[in-house]
Amino acid sequence: MFLEQGVKPENHFWKYLLGSVFIITASFIGQIPFSIAVLYKSFKENAAFPADNDSALKMFEPNLTLFLVMLSFVFALAGIYFVVKYMHHQTLLSVTTGRKKVDWNRVLFSFLLWALFSVISFLVLYFQSQEKFVWNFKLVPFLILSVIGTIFIPIQTSTEEYVFRGYLMQGFANLAKNKWFPLVMTSLIFGSMHILNPEVTKMGYIIMVYYIGTGLFLGIITLMDDGIELALGFHAANNLVGALLVTSDWSVFQTHSIFKDMSDPSAGADVILPVVIVYPVLLFIFSKKYKWTNWKEKLTGKIDEPKNEVTEFLNLN
Length: 317
Hints:
- The chain has helices at residues 13-30, 32-44, 53-57, 62-87, 104-128, 139-176, 180-192, 198-203, 208-225, 229-245, 269-290, 295-300, 309-316; strands at 133-135, 246-248, 259-261.
- It is mostly helical and 317 residues long.
- The protein has one domain.
- The protein has a 3-stranded mixed sheet with strand order 1-3-2.
- Its EC number is 3.4.-.-.
C-alpha cells in the first residue's frame, strides 16, 4: 500500500522535519538566479530593490520571469530525490505509487479530463461575459510560453505533489499511524502555502476554501487510488492550461496567454463550486473508472507499524 511503504520503525518524524528543511533550502538555492537577476536590473537601472515579491515578479518580461521562478522547483525536486534516497533509504517510486511502476495512463487520463473541463468551463464563462476578457494572443511570446510551460510547469506541480501527497503524507502517517491525519494535515498545509498569493489579498480569505479544498481532493484521490498519479495529472493540467489560456494583472504570474481577464477579482460561486460540486463529480468519475471501494478504511483506517527484523527474530525465539 502507498502510505504503508513509508511507515517504518526507522522513519522517525524528525527525519521528515529535517528533510523538509533540506527541500526548502534546495528551493531557496534555486531562487538565487532570480535574485541575482533582480539585483542586477535594479543596479543597472539605478532603481530601488523591490520591496515585495509581487513587485519583483513584474520586473521582467513574463516568459523570463516564469523561467527564472520555475528553476527553484527543479532544485526542490532534486532535493526530494536526495532526501528520499539518502535520508529515508526509499526509492522515488515508493513515494509515487503503491504499484510496481508508475501508471502513466492514470496521469494522462487525469490530465486530459481536467484540461478538457478547464477549457470548456472557461469558454462557457467567456461567452457569457465577453466584456471581461481581451484577446492577448501574440504568436512568438505564446510559443515561447508553451515551451517553457510544457517543460517547467509539470516539474513545478510534480514537486508540490511529491512534497504534499507523497513525502509529507507518508511522514504524517509515520507520526499518527492512521490515514485521516495525513489527509487533513497535508490539505491544511497545502492550502496555507497559498496564503501569500495576491489572489488572497484581492478576494479575501474565503478563497482559502478553494485552496484547502483542492488539497483535500488531491489527498483523497491519492489515498483511494494508492498513488499520486491522478494528482500529478490533475495538478499539471490545472496550472498549465491556466497559464496558456488566461492571465490577469492580479494573479501570481502574468503570462503571454491567449486571453487576459480584465475584471476585478471577487470571491463568488467560482470559489465554492469546484469544492462542493466539481470535485465530487470528479471523484465519482475516478471511482467508477478505477473501481474504488472501501472508502472509510482507505481514508480513515489505521496503519500497523511493521516490525523490524530484530523484533521478528526475538518473537520467533
